[in-house]
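Subject: Sanity check before I submit

Could someone independently write out the structure tokens for this chain? I want to compare against mine line by line before I put it in a report. The sequence has 175 residues.
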Amino acid sequence: MSGTLLGKRVCKIPDGDDRERLVCVDCGHVHYDNPKIIVGAVCVWEDRFLLCRRAIEPRSGFWTMPAGYMELNETTAQGAAREVWEEARARVEIGPLLALYDLPRISQVHMIFAARMLTPEHGAGPESLEVGLFAWNEIPWDDLAYPTVRWSLEHFRDLEGQTAFAPRGVPEGRW
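---
Independent answer below. Compare away.
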């Protein structure tokens, strides 16, 4: 449904549902507020990892892999490649799904892919202060924006050289 909901809205449990939703008292339209899907990629060029320093909140100034909200009418892989371009101005070949993180506390699901950069070229997009390629021992571990960035990098490293694997989830006891 597009456009603006007009009329008075109330929180109530709609018929046939089991939880409160925002419902228009004039037309009965139910607004479903569902979890957001985040797509991103651990991008590599040779033995280096592509990271972006965030220019926007939350966590402005901290480092992350290229990732963001999935858009309508795109696949998860297309969304991950788009996010890499928007944040790091890099072209990638999206590989297998590396990790799937269910984060109900923040109502998000993160789908992180492995990706190979097609060239070493990269640059800061509008949501990044700077972008860099880091060797493993150069990654700014203390300045990573989110736990999922660390987990994804570690999962990528753990699976290096493998060609068939199942996506990883939130490490036990970490969330």
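---
OP: Matches mine. For the report I'm noting this point. Residues 76-88 form the longest helix (13 residues).
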